[in-house]
Amino acid sequence: xxxxxxxxxxxxxxxxxxxxxxxVRYGGNTACVEVTVGGRTIILDAGTGVIPLGRDLVRRAGxxxxxxxxxxxxxxxxxxxxxxxxxPAYIPSTRLHVYGLGAxxxxxxxxxxxxxxxxxxxxxxxxxxAAKVIRSVRETEEVVWDEDGVRVxxxxxxxxxxxxxxxIHRSYAHPxxxxxxxxxxxxxxxxxxxxxxxxxxxxxxxxxxxxxxxVLIHDAQYSEAHYRTSTQGFGHSxxxxxxxxxxxxxxxxxxxxxxxPSYDDAKIDEMQARARGLFVNAQAAYEGLTLELTxxxxxxxHILALREGTKEM
Length: 313
Known about the structure:
Blueprint: E1 5-11, E2 32-37, E3 40-44, H1 50-61, E4 67-72, E5 95-100, H2 107-115, E6 131-136, E7 142-146, E8 149-153, E9 164-171, E10 178-185, E11 188-193, H3 204-209, E12 215-219, H4 224-231, H5 239-249, E13 253-257, H6 265-278, E14 282-284, E15 290-293, E16 298-299
């Protein structure tokens, strides 16, 4: 079995895609993160970044069947808008597991079906040829992927050492709620906390959930000035909030995520510099950023500088 735990960013923006010269270095696609654990592929959110990821997964598979696990944090469009264009979902040999937030086990599937109704998209969800398991999960459940496949179970159930385990924390600091996911494997862990807004004194529930994680991917959409003047209560955090959460949880590395679509590369550079003054092991996510976790602790082995001018972080 492949021993790698790798994180790669395919979409790092919030709200809507922002292509153009001003966003070349950090990228303009909306939320999508690929996690490769022991040869298994987990996808965190299906914003427009999932479109190039899907093409790359097909290329890497070289004609062999694909099996992937897609975890949807919530159902806002910037986290689902790329799914109708996800190439593996059209290939009959693909097995696709899709789990996420919903009021009942069928609500996630109903929303995806609605997004691809005849009035909105030419191909329905049912016409996508892959074998699909789509269901909403509860915070009191966890997702496990081991030699027996992918399943949803009680967190109290035992799993083997090589099992991939995904724990769930529901945050209410975003309209409609959002799921924060913790991916664990062989003592290594990643926490994905997009679309969350910090509290006065810090989000203690999130800090407890993220305690000791190797990497925390945390929403940091707004600058402090932007937040204070016009966006408080929108369900997104500032750099200061993200750093406070990382410090309270004692994580190894913080990655700022869900950049505001109005911010150009220079603005995100400023926010990264601000973050590093508050939490040393902080950086801003950009498309192509690749992190690898080792059993000792988080280790950044390389960064894919896909765009001219991207600096080593």
